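Quick note —
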Amino acid sequence: MIKILNKQDCCGCFSCSQKCPKKCISMLEDKEGFCYPHVNEDVCIDCHLCEKVCPVLHIGNLRKPLRTYAAKNTDKEVRMASSSGGIFTLLAEMVIAEGGVVFGARFNESWEVVHDYTETKEGLVDFRGSKYMQSVVGSCFIKAEFFLKMGRKVLFSGTPCQIAGLKLYLCKEYDNLLTVDFICHGVPSPKVWRRYLKEQVVQVCKDKDIVSGDSHKDQVFIKGVSFRSKYLGWRNYSLTLTFSICYKKMSEKMVSISEPLMKNPFLRGFLCNLYLRPSCYYCPTKCLKSGSDVTVGDYWAIKRKYIDFDDRKGISSVFVNTVKGSKWTNRLQWDSIETTYQEAYQRSIQYSVKENDKRKIFFEYLEDENITIAYCVKKFTDTPFVAMFKNRIKRMVKILFAQKYLF
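Predicted structure written out below.
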């Protein structure tokens, strides 16, 4: 049976829990908020199927993309609502137009991130945009397999480790399956996210002199979340929260709070690797090992390489990894420039991030309900944020020009 002795050996893809024929594996949160498998040994029949579908135990092959593009959706409204160039939406709309099903990550009513599927173009709105969170896959692999066996086309999008888990779960290649992952920095703790949202609601209540949770008084509810709002531009994106203030007089007022990347505490802690899942520091799917057909991300080098193509509304890097991926992308109606892997390269494609040495003490501090996320992040991200980004850019430049590091 699957046993997690070291937390870094589980990426939380839910493949094992879905593959178990006796349904004796439950995915339960640990004290940091990450889900891990727990086996009911009384029911387990030692079939070892859970081990056979684990992407940590069965790491894929190192790959190099067949073709690489800088691309953007011609629909500017869609692109502004997307994290980068809106290419996922183009692929998803094509699949749905051909009677297919699209799986992706969305927020639920509690603003947690879960995986789900849609059969309509309208449903794609919920999947659009980055969710810097570990999504709960639930039974989506089972549902995807059901649609595939029906002969319907399926686009499954997710983190690289989720795609690797799906491919192992299916145990065979499907011509009607298109898999899309993204350049992944890592996934932060859902517990930290819930704590952060709670603190933001409390802060709005204080600002508006509201007693939250009292049905006889004014109340505040979260109505919208955007991790990658382009309010200040694509490069200087912001985390934007929209609140509904419901007054006891039955009137309602909408309030938005938007903080740019360098000022928002949740984004700062995320990018400083303070509360990522342990497996993210030892990611088994780097170097395109997930087996995905297409990998998308931000084309941050566009200003340096193709300045005339950059309109500051978002440009995607598109890595076409398979012949199947090439067949789909060749049909897209997009604005694109074929480029090279070296030009579009980001360090996160090939290397796991380094664990913040303050990570353990951060979670210890978090046990105190009186200490805020903002306080902890400020205290434990001792490297100045601007300096961190400068160092990251320097490392990237060195890698770009040192060909021996590129496959």
